[in-house]
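Annual report, structural modelling task.

Input specification for the NDP complex:
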Amino acid sequence: TNVSLVRSIPSGAPTVADFKVSSAPTPAKESLKDGEILVRTLYLSCDPYMRGRLSGRKDSYVASFEPGKSLSGGGVGVVEASSSAKFSAGDIVTGADFQWRTVFVAPAAGFIKVPAAGAAEPVNVLGVFGMPSFTAYVGTVVLCKIKAGETILVSAASGAVGQMVVQLAKARGARVIATAGSDDKVQFVKELGADVVFNYKTVGDYEAAIRSAAPGGFQAYFDNVGGEFLDAVLKCISPNGRIAECGMISQYNATSDTAYAIRNLSYVITSKLTIHGYIVSDYYARPAYGEFVQEVSELLKDGKIQYKIDEVVGLENGPQALLDLFEGKNFGKRVVKVTGR
Ligand code: NDP
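The model returned the following structure:
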């Protein structure tokens, strides 16, 4: 099976009709060229940044998907055959450029081997040790430098990134205020240890809700949503506040006509705010990555961290699984289970 983009999507919310699921011939082991591997996909990662790749834009930090060609993104799979000294058949591999195919051939250079400990539970490579989890670490620990006695606010707190922000901040002794888009999600985020959690869809006035959740103020905001919620935060975050500007999912389907215009930007001056915009891929080559892996390994070993995976079965359901992210229909880290071990 193979999922491709039918056409480039100029504006607004994409639909499943923008994708095509088709059957593709399984590549033969004999067709491998020197340095290539044949990979069978176990899991594919659905991530909000992929919306930017459905745009046809050429100026983004990731290349746009091309109509007619397979989608690609983070994944984990098993090497079925190898013409590269780097891998042997049976190795579990991961990379950011998995094709949305059941089986595919690619140069070995784009993949790394998953260590035996991680290979036992391959979905964790996209989950608790995955890119969004590391994104949470960078924003919370490296950029906001959250510490005991401080309060951090995080939006989309039940998601792939948010659930780790909550737990990493709690592990440092901070107070955590969080938002989520349903009562079930609110309950889950409370179980992760957040001190106050509210459903932003039913709360009414954002500014009033934030002020009553954090009467003593808050020093940091981890932004996953942008738009109107960010605007309210700018107005009520404490002086010298730090913002990890991670994502603005409320704006990813917006057009120039529907994009939310921020009104409270001048609070950056009067409240002396620091906004840290960042892209996680810049941090894999820095010490932060090793520190993240070590901390999460220890928290896991001690049973002090949990990570919710939201699995959709079948590559044919991949397009809907991806589009669900923009309607909050995922609950936890969304992955597509493509084939079994
Ligand atoms: P999630 O698992 O959190 O899934 C997306 C969630 O966003 C939904 O479940 C929904 O939660 C919420 N959401 C969807 N639409 C809206 C909307 N219109 N307004 C408010 N909330 C909405 O995704 P991730 O954890 O993978 O990503 C979270 C953010 O982090 C995204 O903005 C993403 O782009 C960003 N990111 C940035 C990276 C970087 O390097 N800077 C790397 C990785 C992710 P709910 O039901 O609570 O509304």
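The chain has two domains: 2-126+308-337, 131-281.
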